[in-house]
Amino acid sequence: MTDTTPRRALVVGVTGIVGQNLAALLADRGWEVFGLSRSGGAPDPRVRPVRADLADPDGLREALAEVRPAFVAITAWTRMDTEADNIRVNAAAVRNVLGALADAGSVEHVALMTGLKHYLGPFEAYATGVMADTPFREEEPRLTTPNFYYAQEDELFAAAERGGFTWSVHRSHTVFGFATGNAMNMVLTIGAYAAICKELGRPFVFPGSATQWNSVTDVTDADLLSEQMLWASEHGRNEAFNTANGDVFRWRWLWPQIAAFFDLPWEGFEGAPRTLVESMAGAEDVWRRIAERHGLVEPDLGRVASWWHTDGDLGRDIEVLTDMNKSRKAGFTASRDTRDSFFHYIARYREAKILP
């Protein structure tokens, strides 16, 4: 490459809620962007798609042989039935990607996205053991429970030592962003829920716990996370950072505003969680009817809403809040207004004809 050649970046998981936003940011800033996914899709036409399976080391070597990225972002993971399988599969994914890139020697920095299960524990033991007090801080020791985030970090650290590149780890909370077909998309899930409530004449019921209704919490904007990943490649090397918007809120404050936006009567927490998995059971035909009437691009509700994930986030019986001081002190001071972030992405989903 010459001095005038754009620097190359590889986004692993480019079709995901963070991968899509990060790839767009990199392209905006003049990078030559390659996007790796199992499907070989790339939602942004500026991104060069790479099709490969993270579980296939030989296939990855072949697919990535000519990419030679300087910056690598790993934003993908695969949910398995047990944490032992999560560790096996997701640690191997990090190992396989970085192993496939090792011979070229081009990698300068790798950013790994994880999350607050670093502090809360894995799905099998979620928020059940001894945890640090909130707000969670990066210097807290690892929990004793096996966790695939720890296994991914260890693979990253070992590869960085062998390859001589720097790394950063980004521990996000619930991500607000723009993507479809993603298993963890709260904004789109809530938007679809509101549309179905409207269609059926139902009130907009908060599905979560009393703790989440009443306690202070935060979330992560996908654009903000993307900015932090790119910033860390220059200014936050060999560090782990929490990633949250920088403001806090209570769902009892935001929920009525979402209901008003969709012109729906609402109900807050009353006695016990009223989960989306239960209340939205069998809603697939309702969504198809909505999609047909409004000319929406995705009639398959399973590719729009992730009831289980939003139930998990809103059903927690503990306060979940992150500390952002480490990132701020290091020089990353960007922030987002969570209310503005939510409605910004709702507007994008409407413009894209994904929500009515």
UniProtKB/TrEMBL annotation:
InterPro entries, alphabetized: NAD(P)-bd_dom_sf, PRISE-like_Rossmann-fold
Family annotation (Pfam families): PRISE
PRISE-like Rossmann-fold domain sequence ranges: 88-356
SUPFAM superfamilies: NAD(P)-binding Rossmann-fold domains
Entry protein name: Nucleoside-diphosphate-sugar epimerase
